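Appendix B, Record 12. Input sequence as logged:
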Amino acid sequence: MMFRSPRFVAAMACFSLAMMTFTAGKSSAEEAKAIDVLGKAKMTVPSEFKPSEKKSRIIEHEFKVGEGDAAARLTMMRAGGGVAQNIKRWKGQFSGGKEEDQKTETVKAGPFELHLVDVTGSFAESMGGGPFFGGRTVQRENYAMVGAIFASEDGGMYFAKLVGPAETVKANREKFVEMTKSVGK
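Logged structural output:
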């Protein structure tokens, strides 16, 4: 009975575990493409935006946009505070940049008032500690951000931010905006 030997059973158990892990990883990556926004709508993430490891515990979803050193980071999370205060904080993370590249617009998207924010210049990236806990800061020259604040009527807020080299962010801005407006479809 070769098929019931302890080695065969152990090998099959390892194989089954590996397949479950592979399937679970594949399933969660596929599920990450439709992001729940505050239980009110789903946001469809472009297939070019690849799920990646979260760099912070407060981030709910993270994606890599672009390749290599030119890649940008797309993060999504529930948020608090006021819309104006968060926009001011985001803009405060940048210095310099062309005035025409600094803009804010507000549109209606599904159940949300959607605030879109574009900023360029030198980005003060926090290297640990998060936005409220300090840590070492590194200046990233020629960076850009397009961010979205989803504000619901009940006061809930959700953030999506694409930050990285200006060329990558600008090349993917329309996809980002289309993604944020997909909550209205």
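The CA atoms of residues 4 and 138 lie 59 Å apart.
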